[in-house]
Design a protein that fits this description.
single chain, mainly alpha, 5 helices, 85% helix, globular, transport, cell membrane, membrane, FluC, ion transport
Length: 125
């Protein structure tokens, strides 16, 4: 890994984390309830975008360096497995079992589906 690629990954990761913070705040300000809508939207959109990026890279539409910087850097900072896991535990502690199941298992199932859809779209372009 070159120093320039490492710098680009770092900057992209910071930008992704800042984007997640801002988007989550906007979603929280516009929704009510205790279900973590922001984290769900962020993780599913990030899965879709990562799948799209991987599909475009596989189809040789984008160079592999883009997948590293945007995929690992930006989308790695943007998405958040740890927050989704914590929010699932918080829902369980609140005895909101259906919401916890939807959040935990739903995030996995729909995240994989979103990534697969993005990959198919990117590979088709």
């Amino acid at each position: 890994m070159t120093p320039l690629l490492l710098l680009a990954l770092s900057v992209a990761g910071g930008a992704g984390a800042a984007t997640r913070f801002l988007l989550d705040g906007l979603i929280r300000a516009r929704t009510t309830g205790r279900y973590p809508v922001g984290t769900t939207v962020i993780n599913l959109s990030g899965s879709l975008l990562l799948g799209l990026l991987a599909g475009l890279t596989t189809a040789s539409v984008l160079p592999e360096a883009w997948q590293a910087v945007v995929g690992t850097g930006f989308l790695g900072g943007y998405t958040t497995f740890s927050t989704a896991s914590f929010e699932t535990v918080r829902l369980l502690q609140s005895r909101r079992y259906v919401a916890a199941l939807l959040n935990g298992l739903g995030m996995l199932v729909f995240g994989v589906a979103a990534a697969a859809a993005g990959f198919a779209l990117g590979a088709a372009l």
